[in-house]
């Protein structure tokens, strides 16, 4: 089953940008794709912008860094990492994500 990437649709006419740090956007997307957090995989969705920024700050991520993110989920942290790092590779085990 092919799923639509909400990030790719963000620039479509009349579309709104998906914010992976918005609780309502996360709920809506999970409902749309028929997914829910897999607690066996330890999935939790980060939705607090200040916490996401603190994680990037603590990692001292700079424009000269390459970052490997394991388990990006819907991409809340990934969005912040790509704004700071030279390269970001995100690997997700869950095919629903």
Question: Can you tag this structure with a few keywords?
Answer:
alpha+beta; single chain; 97 residues; two-stranded parallel ribbon
Short recap of the structure:
This protein is α+β, with helices and mostly antiparallel strands. Helix content is 31%, strand content 10%. The protein has a two-stranded parallel ribbon with strand order 1-2.
Strand-pairing-aware structural class = alpha+beta
What Rg, in angstroms, do the CA atoms define?
A: 14 Å
Identify the strand order in the major beta sheet: 1-2
Characterize the largest beta sheet: strand count, sense, and whether it forms a barrel: 2 strands, parallel
Unreliable stretches covering 5 or more consecutive residues? 1-13
Task: Indicate the proportion of strand residues.
Answer: 5-15%
Q: What is the overall silhouette?
A: globular
Mean pLDDT: 82
* SSE pattern: HHEHE
């Amino acid at each position: 089953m092919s799923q639509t990437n909400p990030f790719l649709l963000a620039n479509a006419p009349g579309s709104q940008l998906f914010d992976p740090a918005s609780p309502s956007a996360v709920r809506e997307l999970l409902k749309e794709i028929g997914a829910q957090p897999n607690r066996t995989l330890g999935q939790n969705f980060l939705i607090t912008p200040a916490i996401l920024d603190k994680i990037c700050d603590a990692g001292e991520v700079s424009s000269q860094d390459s970052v490997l993110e394991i388990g990006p989920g819907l991409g809340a942290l990934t969005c912040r990492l790509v704004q700071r790092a030279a390269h970001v590779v995100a690997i997700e085990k869950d095919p629903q994500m």
